[in-house]
Design goal:
alpha+beta; Arc Repressor Mutant, subunit A; 2 domains; 6-stranded antiparallel sheet; two-stranded antiparallel sheet; 9 helices
Length: 277
C-alpha cells in the first residue's frame, strides 16, 4: 500500500481524538481563567492573568472576549483589568446562599429575630453591589422589608453595603463607584466619593454601619461584619426596622444585638477575637 495512503489513514484515525481533545482543552482553560478571576479581590490585568495561569496573553484575551459576551467576565473602567461578570457572580451567589455560611448563621439569626422582633439579613459583596444570601423576619411583622435571597443593593446607601466595603482597599471602592455610581434615593443618600470614604472610615473605627433612611426613608438599619478564620470580612449581618431614631435606646439595643450576632457567627466559622484584618 502506498505510503501516502498509510499516512492519510493514520491522520484520519488520529483526527477524532484531536477534535475531541480540543473542546476539553478549551473547557480546562476557561475554568482556569474563571478560577483565577474568582479568587482575586479586584480587577486583574491581562498580564497578571496570563502569568498566573501560564497561557499566552493572546490566548487569554480571546477567551476573555468570548466569556465577556456571555456575561461571565467583565472588563474594568477604560478596559483596564478583568473580574468575574454578573452571570458568573449570580451563579456563585446562589451557590453560597445554599451552602455552609447561611446554614451556620440561620439559627443565630432566628435567635436575634426572637430577641428583637425585627428583620435580620445577611449579605456578601461579590462585585459592585451587595447580594442578600439569608433573611429571617418576624412572622407577625406588620410591615416587611422588600428584599429576598438574591436581591442586590448598592454599597453607598445600605448598612450592609458600607460594612462590606469598609475593609476593602480604597482603590477597589473607587472602582465600584466608577462602575455603579452613587445614585440618590432619598435626601439622606451619600452622593460623593469623599463622603462615602469618610463614612467607611467611621465604620472601621466603630465596627458597625448605619443606614438612616438612605435607601428607603422609612427604614433604618444597622450592620456588623462577619469575619472568617483569617480575620477578613466575608459577609455582613444587619437588623432592619421601621421609623427608629438613630439616637433612641431601641436603636442602640439593635446595634448591640447585630454586633453580638455577627461575632457569634464569625466564631462559628473559625474567627477568634483579635484576628482582624
Amino acid at each position: 500500500m502506498p505510503t501516502a495512503a498509510l499516512t492519510s489513514r493514520t491522520a484520519d484515525k488520529a483526527r477524532p481524538e484531536a477534535i475531541a481533545a480540543s473542546p476539553v482543552r478549551a473547557i480546562e482553560r476557561t475554568m482556569k481563567i474563571l478560577r483565577a478571576l474568582g479568587s482575586s479581590p479586584g480587577y486583574v490585568t491581562l498580564t497578571e492573568l496570563s502569568q498566573s495561569i501560564d497561557l499566552h496573553k493572546s490566548t487569554v484575551l480571546r477567551f476573555l472576549r468570548t466569556l465577556e459576551q456571555g456575561g461571565f467576565v467583565a472588563s474594568g473602567p477604560g478596559g483596564k483589568g478583568w473580574r468575574p461578570g454578573p452571570v458568573f457572580l449570580d451563579i456563585k451567589s446562589r451557590a453560597i446562599a445554599e451552602q455552609d455560611l447561611a446554614e451556620i448563621a440561620r439559627p443565630l439569626m432566628e435567635e436575634a429575630v426572637k430577641l428583637t422582633n425585627e428583620t435580620v439579613q445577611m449579605a456578601i459583596l461579590p462585585d459592585n453591589s451587595i447580594v442578600y444570601i439569608a433573611k429571617v423576619e418576624p412572622l407577625d411583622a406588620p410591615l416587611r422589608i422588600n428584599t429576598q435571597i438574591g436581591t442586590r443593593r448598592p454599597i453607598h446607601c445600605t448598612a450592609l453595603g458600607k460594612v462590606l466595603a469598609a475593609w476593602r482597599d480604597p482603590t477597589a471602592v473607587d472602582a465600584i463607584i466608577a462602575e455603579a455610581g452613587l445614585t440618590r434615593y432619598t435626601a439622606s443618600t451619600i452622593t460623593t466619593a469623599e463622603a462615602l470614604h469618610k463614612a467607611l472610615a467611621k465604620v472601621r473605627r466603630e465596627g458597625h454601619a448605619f443606614d438612616l433612611g438612605e435607601f428607603n426613608q422609612l427604614v433604618t438599619c444597622v450592620a456588623a461584619p462577619i469575619r472568617g478564620a483569617d480575620g477578613q470580612v466575608v459577609a455582613g449581618l444587619s437588623i432592619s426596622s421601621f421609623g427608629q431614631s438613630a439616637k433612641s435606646a431601641r436603636f442602640a439595643e439593635l446595634t448591640r444585638q447585630a454586633r453580638a450576632t455577627a461575632e457569634r457567627i464569625s466564631e462559628r466559622i473559625g474567627w477568634t477575637p483579635g484576628a482582624t484584618r
